[in-house]
Amino acid sequence: MDIQERIDSYFNDSAVRGELISAISRLVAVKSVKGEPTAEAPFGPGPRAALDEAVKLCAELGFSVRDYDHYVGLADMNDKDTQLHILAHLDVVGEGSGWSTDPYTCVEKDGVLYGRGVSDDKGPLCAALFAMKAVRDLGLPVTKNARLIMGTDEESGSGDIKYYYAREPYAPQSFSPDADFPLINVEKGQFRPVFGASWPAVMVEPRVSVLSGGFRFNVVPPEASAEVLGLRAADITPLCPTVERMSGAMFTVTDMVGGARIHCTGKNAHAASPDDGVNAIQAMLELLSALPLAQCQSTRAIRALKERFPLGDTRGKALGIAQKDDSGELTVNLALMTLSETGFSAQFDARVPVCATVENCVQVCEKALGEAGFTLTGGAQMVPAHVVAADTPLVKTLLECYSAYTGVRDPKPMAIGGGTYVHDIPGGVAFGCDFPGFDPKMHSANEQASVDNLIKSAKIFALAIARLCR
Ligand SMILES: [Zn+2]
């Protein structure tokens, strides 16, 4: 049998399948949501407990392990020079509501695992771990080491691997099973400026006295609300249907003492794909701009914002930064805004293609916002795109291994707007474990993972490790 067949039959053994599921179950049972840091637990007690459990698991499986200052756990396949880093993470996002089963008990039903972390990222972590185990158990010929790096802070800024790589060298090759198959080799850059203006309070009416919308910089804002002094609901309601038709958002307007309150409901989506959402802040700006407001600073700010972030413009056309190349189109999400009687602050999240520069993006924005009297108040740096050439040995080998167990011919690497765990790792790519056509419901209720897909992932990883560390 050749190596590919030996790996195949190794993982087709039901005992190995059972071991993999029980390893995942052990990790899912630890609620590893970020918490208050302590000296012994830099990301709180939950991630620390998951780290302890994972290090214990790896040691039981016969790997040499290390708890690296409680930031990451390390498992080495052998004691040779390290050729490959595999980055997976043990922390999870909170469970939220709407689960049909206990989120911290891994349950298998009809070949599908349910539980927080089964697909992001405890299941893929175990698939990689068992891939290393397979290479060792089968005695496949390797002259180099593969190191599994088990992080504890991927969901909240990746302080875990920043700490590790500030002290340790990168490996010649790295991949992370924390995204999609076939493979992601291009991640757009990010530009997320905070900007605003301030002014003295005035008493003229009608005026907008309060506006707030959005809850996180990387989510299309699903809600926005505003208060308008000096107008009644009856003055505003007739203007709503037009904006509702244009935007897809819904308004409710109610009277309050001295004015009216407006609530706008849009639809959330990830900032990297703003076309999937309905931006409630932009819809609100459109409606407010159509009202007969008094000339004052808040009115001018609202209308100037509407000019620069008009409805439907998710490409930065009005800001003057629209651009695209092979890595995709620049996208813009006006994510957060709060306005009071004395000023406003807002933040947008742009995902920028490889061709974006300080000159054609950052400076153009500064000018467009400056002309409206707005200033950038911080965070105006651009994180450059992450690009690994499609013809590198790593990318070619990984895609061949994917092809070997899926039968997909000539799979192509992908460019995405989001950033993955390897965004700051030179030459690193995201590789698995989501297969096209299966929705793992990551970060949502009833997160799930197909056991067959995890087994297939483990086979792909084992073949990749055997080839890359040969
Ligand atoms: Zn993840």
Q: What is the CATH C-level name of the largest domain?
A: Alpha Beta
Under the CATH scheme, which architecture of the largest domain would be assigned? 3-Layer(aba) Sandwich
N- and C-termini, Cα separation: 17 Å
Going by CATH, what is the homologous superfamily of the largest domain? Answer: Zn peptidases
Mean pLDDT: 96
Biggest sheet architecture? 10 strands, antiparallel
Going by helix content, strand content and strand pairing, the class is: alpha+beta
Question: How many DSSP helices?
Answer: 12
Rg over C-alpha atoms, rounded to the nearest angstrom: 25 Å
Keywords:
470 residues, alpha+beta, Aminopeptidase, Alpha-Beta Plaits, 2 domains, ten-stranded antiparallel sheet, six-stranded mixed sheet, elongated, binds zinc ion
